[in-house]
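Sequence only, no structure available. Ideas?
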Amino acid sequence: MTRLLLGRLVQAALVALVVGGLCFALVRVLPGDAAFRIAADRYGPDALTAQAAEAVRQELGLDRPWPELLLRWFGELAQGHLGNSLVSGEPVSEELASQLGPSLWLAACALVLSLLIGLPLGLVSGLRAGSGLDRLALIGAVALRALPPFVLGLVLMLVFSIRLEWLPPAGYGTWREMALPSLTLALGLAAVSSRVARDAVAEVGATTYYRFARLKGLPERAVLARHGLRNAAIPVVTYLGLQAVYLIEGVVVVESLFAYPGIGHALVHAVIARDVPMVQGAALVMGLLFVLLNLGVDLLCRLLDPRLGAAR
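Reply:
I predicted one. C-alpha cells follow.
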C-alpha cells in the first residue's frame, strides 16, 4: 500500500511538471499578441487600444523571457499557489474552487448513469453471448463510441430540447439542466463498459468453477451472485481507470457545448483569452483528478481481489 501511494505521489509530481510546461509552451506559441487578447477581455473590444495592450504587457511582464516566467510559476506552485488570472486578477485557485464542484458533480452523474446503463446490458449480453441481443448491443455500442461527444450532444439537444422541448439546452442548478450533459457523457462511457462487462461475464461463465456450481443444481441467480459478479467486476473496475481519460476529455467538450459552469468551460475560455495561469491551473487540476481516479481504481481492485496486493 505504501509503495502504491508513493508511486501515485511521484506520478502527481510528474503530471504537474509536464502539464504546466506543455500548457505554458502551447499557449505562448499561439498566433497573435497575448497582450491584445487579454486587454480585449479586460476592457472589451470597443475600448481596446495599443496603449491599453502595452499597459497590460508591462503590468503582467509578458515581455519577459519565457523561462523566467515558467520558473516563477513552478516556484509559486511549490508554495501551493497557482498564480493569479491575467484577465480577472483573482487567484486561480479561488476561481477553480468555484468551478470544481459543478465539474465533479457532472462527472459523478455521468459515471453513475453509465454504470446503470452499461452494466445491466453487459450482464445480459454476457449471459447470452452470441445471441441476437448480444449482436444488437454490439452494434449500438460501436455506433455510440464512434460518435464524438459534441456530435452526440448536438443530437440529444436537437431531439430533447428543440423537437420535444422536454429539457433545457443549457444551464446549471436542477436535474433538468444536468440531464443532457450527463447523458452525453454517460452514453459514450456505457458503450464500452457494456462490452467490457459482457466479455468479463462470458469469460467467467466459461470457467470450470462456474459450470460446476451450475451442475450442483444451484439456482442461476445464486451462481451468478456467488461466483460470477465478484470475478467479473475486476476487469470492469480496472477499465474505470481508462474511462477517466474519456471522462475528463469529454467534460471539456460537453461543458462548452451546454454552457455548463465547470472547469472544462473555464479552460476553453482561458485558452481563448491567453490566460496562461488559468490554463495551467485548470489542466493541472484535471491531471491530478486523473491520478486520483486511478488510485481509487487500484484500491478498489485490491478490495475485490486481495491477491493483487499480496502479489506485489
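The radius of gyration is 24 Å.
Hope that gets you unstuck.
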